[in-house]
Structure formats: C-alpha cells, structure tokens
Amino acid sequence: MKIFATYNIKGGVGKTTAAVNLAHLSAADGYRTLLWDLDPQGAASFLFRVKPRVKGGGKALIRGTRTLDDAIKGTDFDHLDLVPADFTYRNMDLILDGAGPTTGTKPTRKLARLLRPLAAEYDHVFLDCPPSISLVSENVMHAADVLLIPLIPTTLSVRTLDQLTGFVAGFNGHRPEVRAFFSMVDRRKKLHQEIIAALQSERAGVAATPIPALSMIERMSVERAPVTAFAPNSAAARAYRSLWSELTTRPAT
Amino acid sequence: MGLWGRAVACLKEILVVTATDLREFVVNASGGDDTALAAVPDALSAGFTLAPEPRVTTQRLIWLDTFDWGLYRAGLMLRFEQARRGGGRLLLSRTDGTPQAEQPVTSWPRRPRLAEDLPDGPVRDGIIGLTRPRALLPLARAVATASVTRLLNEDGKTVARLVTDHITVTAPGTTAPTAELPARLAVTEVRGYPGQARKAAALLATVPGLGPASQTTFAAGLTALGRHPSANGAEPEITATMPAPVAVARLMLRLLDTLELNVDGVLRDIDTEFLHDFRVAVRRTRSALKLLGGVLPADLAGPYAAEFKWLGDLTTPTRDLDVHLLGFDAMAAQLTDAEPADLEPLRAFLVRRRAREFRKLARALRGPRFRAITDDWRKALLEIRDAGGPLKPTAAALARATTGRSFRRIAAQGSAITAASPPESLHNLRKRAKELRYLLEFFAPLHDPVAYRKVVSDLKQLQDCLGEFQDNEVQRAEIHDLADAMLAERAAPAATLLAMGEIAANLARRQGEARAEFAARFGRFAGPAGQERVRVLLEGRP
Fold it and tell me: What pLDDT score was predicted for residue B230?
C-alpha cells in the first residue's frame, strides 16, 4: 500500500482537485484506491457526491469505537472508495491528542496506525489534507510515502517548499518523499514561466508537468466528478494524466 | 467485545446473509420476460433516479468439470471466463456461488485439459487433488449479456446498481442444444450503502412476474440443458423380492451402460480414467457372469464370458502402460542412488509403446466384434428383464447364497496360506476377494447399510494388502520385461537400466512388507469376529 498525501499550508492551491483526479486515475489504472477527505470543508466528498458525514465523527474513528473500514463509501467509479469528511474533523487536533486504543502511539503517528489495517485492501491511499500546520498535517506527513505539494508559481512558494523539505528532513525513521508540482499555472504570465523554470532546475522533486489554471477544472464542482472522468480528453485531464504518469514512473530527481 | 456486542454482530451477519439472498431475481417462466422487465424501471423509480449505462457487456464462459463430476461432488464449480482481448481467467467457487480462487490463463483449448497442465496458481492448487487423473471437460458454455443501470440518490450519487443478465447456454458437442435462461436481475451493493441495496431489492420484489432466484446461473443452466450429475450412473433398481434373473439382468444392464458411457472417452483418449472405468465394468460383468450367470437362461453366460474376456484382454496392455506413466514421477522420486533424469528414456519408451497399443485398442473398439457384443448383450438382457420369469429364487436368496459361498471360499483359501506358500496363492485369493467385493456391491441395495459398511471395510483392508503385494510383483516383472525390450530396441542407456534396477529393488521391498502384513489383515476379515459380521449381514441380527 502506497500512501500519497496532498498538502500545502495555504488553501485554494489545488490540493483537493489534485487528490480527486489523481485518485481517479489511479483507480482507472486498476489500482484499488482509497481517498480520505480529511478536510472538514468536505470538498472532495462533495465532488464525489458523498455526504460529508461519518457516524460518530472523527472521534469515533481516531479513538477506535468505529473502524475506518466502517466509514468507507464506494464512489461511482470502479476500484475507488472514499472516507468522507466530517465537520468534527475541525477538532481533529484535539482528538488526535486524546486517549483511545491508539494510546501509547505518539500523537503524530496515530493516522499512520489507523491506516495500517487497510494495507491488504488497497494499493494506493490518497490523503486530502486541510491547509495549516497542525497535528493533523504532521500526522499526514508521518503516514505518507509521497507528499504531493501543489505550488502556485510565486516567489513565496519556493520558501514554502524549502520549509517543508527541511521539516520532513528532521523526521526520525520514516520520511516521505517530497514531490512538488505547479498548480493553477497561467502560461501567458511570464513570471509564472520564469519561476517554474528556475525551481525545476534548482530543486529536486519538482514535477515537469504543471497543472494549468483552466475553467474545466473549476467545472468539477458543477459536474461533481473528476475532470478525468467527465472530460477525459480535455487539456486539464491530459495534464493530470501526465502528472500521474510522472509520479508512478519517474523517480524524484 | 462484550456478550451484547457479539450478539449484535451475529445478528448483523444473519441480516446481511438474508438480505444478500434476496437480491437476485429471475423472471418467472410463465409471465414472459418482456412484461416483467418493462415494469422494473417504474418500480425502482419510486426510490431512485435511474441512470442506464449505455454499454452492454457480453461475457463468454465455459463451465468445466471432470466426466465424473469430481468438482461438483466436492461442492465446487469451475468456470473459464473469456476476456475480450484474448486469454481469460479461471474462477473457482462453491456451488452456491461463493468465490474461492481465480487465476489468469491464456485460453481454454477445445481439447480436454488436465489440471496438472494448467499454469501454477490458486485454482490449479484448489482442484488438482480433486480431479487427478481426470481431464477437465466443458459441461456447458454460456454467453451472458449484461446491462447495468445505476441507481442514484438525491445527490446524483450511485448508491446501488441493477445488473440485468440475459444468458444463453449451450451443451458441448456438435449437435448441441441451446437454451435461453429467464432474465436474471441482481442488485449489487455500493460499499457503504447497504440500506440502499436493500431498498432496491424490496422495490424489485413488488414487480409482478419477478421471483427470487433460487438457483445459481450454473445450476439453472445445467437444468435447462438437462445435465445433472446423477445422469452418469445411478444404482440399479433391484429389490429383495424381485425374481433373481430380473435382478441380475438389471445389474448387468447397468454395467453395460457404464461400459458404453466410457467408450467415447476411451476412443478420444480424454483421460486414463475412461479406460479404467471401462475395464472395471468389463471385470464386474465377467465376475457377475461367473458368480450369478447360473440364473440366466442356459447357454447365455458361457459365450459372453468368452467375449468379455476378449474385451478385458484387449484393454490390458494400454492400461498397464497408463499405470506406469501415471506413477512415473512418484517412482522416479523414490530413487536414492540414480537420478530421476536417468529414467527419462524409459518414459519415452513407455509413451511410444502406449501409442502403439492404444491404436490397436481403438481399432478393435471401432470394429464389428465389439459392436456385436454390446448390441446383442443388451438385447438379451432386456428380454430377460422384461420377461419376468419364475418368482423363486428371489434376488435376496441369490444374494445370500452367492455371498455366503464366496466368503467361505476366501476363508478356506486364506487359512491355507502360510509363509511358505507361493505368490500365486495370494494372487488367487485376491481374485476371490475382488469377486466378493463385487457381489457385495451388486446387492448393496438389499443389505443393511451399517452391516454392509463393516464387512466392506474389513474386506477393503485385506484387498489393499493383497493388491499391494501383487501390483509390486507384476510391476517388478514388467520392469524386467521393459528392460529386455529396451535393450532389444537399443533404447536403453546404462544409467537408465541401473535406475530401473533400483526401482525393481524398491518394489521387492514393498512387496515383502505387504506379505508381512497379510496374516493380521486376513485374521481380522475371516476370523470369528469377521465371520459374525458376515453372518449379521446375510441373516440379520439374532
């Protein structure tokens, strides 16, 4: 089981759309795929038309009164399941810090432990993480094998990537591979092009495929489906496919 | 989990199972497909928005089993599903449809196939012990056309699916009959939405002309084609009060059925068991002629005994070579000094020889003499069966007299055997034991089952020991003959001959062990306790 997590401190940078489309592509490739919508806003759940509700809330999952298995919902797509968001996830930090059957596990390792029993059932797990630096994001980083960082092409994004790479480098034991990709790229903007070119040459692990800012991607919230499903031949779908193929075939450089 | 928790979990499981059972429906034969199917969308619209998938999928499959239904009898079914772009997969499940294993295979050939010739995989592992040495044959072929309708909730989310299957089944063979099964509808659950699937099933249950599917597709297909395991050989119908000639004619007819049922498989050389079963039917017929032929009209048993002996002798060379080849790997594995590869020239020699002998056998089975035997024999037996005849002796009296005589003969012959007796004395005893076994089996419907099982169990122990003794003796002699023949054909490297020598030595050792066990096994069968068991079988409890 390989765990991918989309993460950025900032919101609105294309985390959820990336998680939704990449998970859909993974499932279409035949991998048994699970997407966990950890964001209390429930955007990924909305896009799959699944009600953002988990019986007993996040507390029941983390404390083990309900298994993760119980919360899983099948999507409309073969091989793709979803753990929906729940509004109680907004208090996830408190829940993770509390007691339960994962007592004895470090608060930063609880998510990883909850995911372990799913290893036989899924090939790929995608964690769609809420923006912020918190106990939740730290848990996600410890659980993930690959940390997918969507970057908006601004000078600040370079700083973000460096901060994150440095943070992960400080982990003891398991360290996720950090893979960044540019998101919401406007090809017409010269600044965007310059930043992309610079960062791709200066930093390791930056994907060659950028995800452009396209209205087709915004349309996902109208269609309530991955763009790779409702417009598989669109430029947006092609970009996600190229990114996915890069992630699965090409090692980080 | 506390007691209450366990009880709830248990109840949940029962509910799930029950609910699953209710999720498959078939169109009742009387109503006709069209009316019932046309009413389905209306019924489901009460709870869902329907989104029919535009694509209709067609699946071709072949159900497979051995000629004697080895998998079915073990509660299993095996099917090959053809993939759209060549190749396919083998799926093993219980007869109720519960999946057990699957593995990919490149294709399914037209000719029968042995499980051991399949590529390694979980299906091969699951069936090899149940089918060996029989080949897998197509039971039936099916073409299933499935259309899927997604059932959506108020968010437009798929919460269940309705799969409608139209299935046509065909029996194997050139002039194969075809049957169209009533349309099948199944509600499949989307993970996390079990209640929605239940709701859809409940709505379907209200559609007139739809009923719960009580059979799997496999069972429905076989029923539609008139194929059933029991079709391959039921017990002869004999009763205690039936006139003896009628009972004997009936059981001989049953043996003739078995013999004829296997001819095609022998001629097509599907697997070695066809010839084996053919030979068993011949051997039983010969024993029946010898032991029970006296009640048949005069001059019938004698000539047919000669004809069936011809038939038995005709099949012996091929069968002997089959036995060598079937046991070849096990034999090679026992070598400690020589290498298994040293024996390969012997295998090649056996294969060549078998091909030669098989051609002779096939020629004879296609010839007029064999046809005449079976046709005339059947005619004669049918006449006896239908004529009735005198009421005495009855079948029960015949069973008592012949079985008792046979047992006493074995007891006398066996008691005379000492450590100094020649091997022939054990060979003869083995033949008598086999005759008794056949008599017991012929008249099995007349015996008390418990008493019968006890006697047969003792007898089987004795037969195993005698069989081991004689088989090793025969094989040893054959190894010597084969060595001579290979030398004569200059097909015998020295390493092969040495390996064969080691095999012969192993056989001699095993034969010695069997001989050492004989006294104890015979004592158990024919001693006072054994005699009492036979008495209870034939005369009932005091």
Answer: 61
- In this complex, is the C-beta atom of A55 within 8 Å of any C-beta atom belonging to chain B? no
Ranges in chain B, pLDDT < 70? 1-22, 29-33, 174-176, 230-236, 541-542
Q: What are the structural domains of chain B?
A: 23-229 (2.40.320.10), 237-318+355-389 (1.40.20.10), 394-542 (1.40.20.10)
Q: Which residues of A touch B83 (CB under 8 A)?
A: none
Note whether A76 contacts B191, CB cutoff 8 Å: no
Token output for B249: 């004619």
Q: Does B191 touch chain A (CB under 8 A)?
A: yes
* Nearest CB neighbour to B157, from listed A49, A71, A72: A49
Contact B191 A49 (CB under 8 A): no
pTM over 0.80: no
Contact B156/A at CB under 8 A? yes
Contact B496, B532 (CB under 8 A): no
Say if B328 is an interface residue toward chain A (CB within 8 Å): no
Give the model's pLDDT for residue B3.
44
Instruction: Convert the pLDDT of each residue in B179-200 to its tens digit.
Output: 889 999 999 999 999 999 999 9
Calculate how close chain A gets to B155, using CA atoms only, in Å. 6
Residue A72: CATH number of its domain:
3.40.50.300
B158 part of contact set with chain A, CB < 8 Å: yes
- Long-range contacts (CB closer than 8 Å, 24 or more residues apart) made by B95-101: B95/B216, B95/B218, B95/B219, B96/B216, B97/B216, B97/B218, B100/B76, B100/B126, B101/B125, B101/B126
